Amino acid sequence: MTTDTRLFNRLSNVLPKWDNAFAVIPQSQHAVLDVNGGNDKDPNIHYVSKMQSLEDAEEQEETLEKYFKQYSSELEYLEQQGFVNLTKLAFWKASSFKVGNPIANAIDDDPTTFWQSDGVQPHKIDISFSKRVDVVQLALYFCLITDESYTPELIKIYAGFSKSDASLYRTFEIKNVNGWVIITFNGNRPQDDLLRCRFIQIQILSNHENGKDSHLRGIRIFGNSATQKKTINAGNQALEMLIQSSAITNESIR
């Protein structure tokens, strides 16, 4: 056996493991998010809220406070699941933002604040980690009652090792949701049902009522291991140096 053959065989054993480490298996199913049903059998969609949509404008005004309280109570539920909150360990960058409504508003705990885009569709949110993470849940908050035509209607989620190699995971149509939605990754990696990546992108392709700009009041990312936090914090030293040496605007945060 020649040296080249031995080298090829060794690489053949190594490269598939590297590729699979960040594999994203696209889900062909077009998922519709509707709290009243339609995808009850989907193992990767979970509604924290079971609120009903309200059509009357006067009734809507009277219930805004209820939705804000529900936001907080559902967020508390998310935090108490026992997973590690990786949200603020990432570097966040939005494709645009309206002055006073930066992407930081989407990861705070205040239901009255929100990120608002200020540009042409699709609107994009890039989420980058300094180290590979094992994501067990991605939680998003949508509310047609409070955000009306600013509510996203069609979104796509991409993931990968970096922005250049990110693959489409799934497309979601937000039809009738007023609360937090948990997206899990059963079947993505059969051995552990995780999304293993360093980069996630959320694309908003359209809004309800043909709205132009979008609101997002809440995004959370959860991992399944406490050791991830230590690993990411160690890697953040290098990321911090990169951030400090770059031109960072209010539309991006870590």
TrEMBL record:
Q: What is a single cellular component term in the Gene Ontology annotation?
A: anaphase-promoting complex
InterPro entries according to UniProt: APC10/Doc1, APC_su10/DOC_dom, Galactose-bd-like_sf
What are the entry keywords?
A: Cell cycle, Cell division, Mitosis, Ubl conjugation pathway
One Pfam entry for this protein is ANAPC10
Q: Where is the DOC domain?
A: 62-248
Show the CDD domains listed in the entry: APC10
GO biological process terms held by the UniProt record: anaphase-promoting complex-dependent catabolic process; cell division; protein K11-linked ubiquitination
Query: What is the similarity comment for this entry?
Result: Belongs to the APC10 family.
Name of the protein in its database record? Anaphase-promoting complex subunit DOC1
Organism expressing this protein natively: Kluyveromyces marxianus (strain DMKU3-1042 / BCC 29191 / NBRC 104275)
Corresponding gene?
Answer: DOC1
